[in-house]
Predict the structure.
Amino acid sequence: PQFTGTIDSFLFTIYPSMGIYTPTGYNENFMYIQQSAQTLPNGIGMGGQIDYFGLWISAEFGRGHSKARPKCSTYGSPCLSSSEEFKIDLIEVWGVGTPYLPDEADENGLSSILDKDNTAKVLLELAGKARHSEGLREPE
């Protein structure tokens, strides 16, 4: 399995108390993302290792786990949920950083983040969202 991310990655909790968990330096398993695999888990994992993530969200976004007992090896976080396995009721996604601006070379503003970032495509596919415009644009 291939992990991605940098030492700028972190996990956090808000409830029952605020906590921010930065990399311990033990490993570089910051972020795992997989879809359509036969032998590996499909979904998004943060920290830890396969099947023992600090935080795991299944590809269907319906279930997750936080199997960081006693602590996540990547972030040093405790279990982030009241039980190791949980059902997801709601996911809130935040964007942090500078807003996306089309490249200056594309004066028509037709550039898409999906063309530039394969991770964005994978996230849409994991969410079950089809790309209806695939193949409809003029070749560049």
